[in-house]
Amino acid sequence: MDGRLSLMDIAALASLIADPARARMLSALMGGTALTATELALAAGVAPSTASSHLAKLTDARLLAIEKQGRHRYFRLFDADVASMLEGLMEIATRHVRTGPSDSALREARVCYDHLAGARGVWLFENLRSRDFLSETLTITPLGHAFFTRLGVDVDALSRTRRPLARTCLDWSERRPHLAGALGAAILQRMFALRWAQRDMTSRAVIVEAPFAQLFTTLCA
Amino acid sequence: MDGRLSLMDIAALASLIADPARARMLSALMGGTALTATELALAAGVAPSTASSHLAKLTDARLLAIEKQGRHRYFRLFDADVASMLEGLMEIATRHVRTGPSDSALREARVCYDHLAGARGVWLFENLRSRDFLSETLTITPLGHAFFTRLGVDVDALSRTRRPLARTCLDWSERRPHLAGALGAAILQRMFALRWAQRDMTSRAVIVEAPFAQLFTTLCA
DNA sequence: AACACACTTCGACCACCATCGAAGCATCCG
DNA sequence: CGGATGCTTCGATGGTGGTCGAAGTGTGTT
Fold first, then answer.
1. Do B81 and A93 touch (CB under 8 A)?
2. Would you state the pLDDT for residue A15?
3. Is residue B1 scored above 50 in pLDDT?
4. pTM of the entire structure?
5. What does the CA dihedral B139, B143, B147, B148 come to, rounded to 10 degrees?
6. What DSSP letter does each residue of A80-137 carry, written as one string?
7. For the CA atoms of B117, B120, B126, B127, what is the dihedral angle to 10 degrees?
8. What CA–CA distance (Å, rounded) separates B66 from B50?
């Protein structure tokens, strides 16, 4: 609303997340896809008017960003840092819970904002590192450039964007890093396009096709 | 209270942090030193009875741990993961605030739970990496082992503890990683012992002595 | 044994804010 | 130019939870 950048303390930020309806909205948006106000109202289980009030607050605080499109307003997480902060909260919130069967799929593979997380995400990152496609400082090596191009990722186009190319993000289920940033997002997109994986429509889970590891390894050669 | 591990959702966790008094307590404990209930009541600006109620909730949720000592009860952050989660919140909460003069000391050097953060913390970590004292997977190299021993850190003793030896922690002011884990904590301890740095008693700030970088470099040789 | 100190429990009070429905705007469609 | 859809604003309501002081419990001190 007001254009000024708001000074926020940690309590004010936490109170935004502390409301169950808002938390459900944020969780829904952790999937990375932008959703309309109506969809978010449904996800949160509140009336449209209530949802509207919540969304205004989250947008004001720059936790969410709006993309207007026709008569729809699509809400998404403001950026990957917000997603990362939310993952950090989840890590603590779920730390004492021993994995129930319900979320085993999430632990296996899930979307973290716009890149791959979970066991498969960590596996992917460690593979890229050990094959020397990514240097220790997370720059793309010549070897990696060739590989990503084979995968269908336009590395040069990515590096022209303002977004950092490769970053790590601590995985709350594996407690080891996985790949984030523009490259992480692009890889997941290619995985979907190549049918190596597909989204579960009802959650953040990603269903990775069985021969994924083999396909990946083949492409490396 | 109850011995069972509580299932918590992200909203419940956030609501614990959302109260201003509790947030002030947590911030005070980010300094790493354990504090008594009375001290925390003072820091939060509430009556002892109110503070007691807050502290019970935070302890129940395993955000805090208690150390009984005589007729005092010392409260501290449960572990480094909790501290890291709080840093993540701070990163988002302060992201649009351009550095006021008041916190320039904090940006320069501060305690993050029990290790060094801020510009000096990031500098330290990058130095240890580039001198190959720490490998890319954050294990201690033979070269590093010798250096840390010279510094007065008993690496072998540290590696016998359950705590991970070296981890990274994203610095909210620098937005690059600094060193956490048992090694990070031990190094800061040695810096205090060697008078390379000293704590500011009123905040998380750390006053690093001017010749620190030179002393450090000399020891590397 | 008596006192002082550190902290907790209890009960009453009050403020904040999430919630809803109804009505108001805005945008697209026929 | 209606009419429908998507979303927001407004006003009223109610519950949750933070707050304090006073009294209670336990632990050292003299």
1. no
2. 96
3. no
4. 0.73
5. 20
6. HHHHHHHHHHHHHHTTT----GGGHHHHH-EEETTEEESHHHHHHHHHHHHTTSB-TT
7. -130
8. 17
Residue A40: exposed, middle, or buried by beta-carbon count in 10 A (0-12, 13-18, 19+)?
A: buried
pLDDT at res. A4: 38
Contact A17 B12 (CB under 8 A): no
- Residue-wise pLDDT for B43-70, tens only, equals 999 999 999 999 999 999 999 999 887 7
From the CA of A30 to the C1' of D24: give the distance in Å: 48
CA distance A84 to chain B (A): 8
How far is the C-alpha of A205 from the C-alpha of A108, rounded, in Å? 8
Q: Positive or negative, the Cα torsion across B42, B48, B51, B52?
A: positive
* Six token digits for residue B173: 């002011």
Q: Mark the nucleotides of strand D covered by protein, meaning any atom under 7 Å from a CB.
A: 5-11, 17-23, 26-29
pLDDT attached to residue A91: 87
pLDDT band at A205 (very low <50, low <70, confident <90, very high): confident
The pLDDT tens digits for A114-127 are: 889 889 999 999 99
User: Which amino acid, one-letter code, is at A5?
Assistant: L
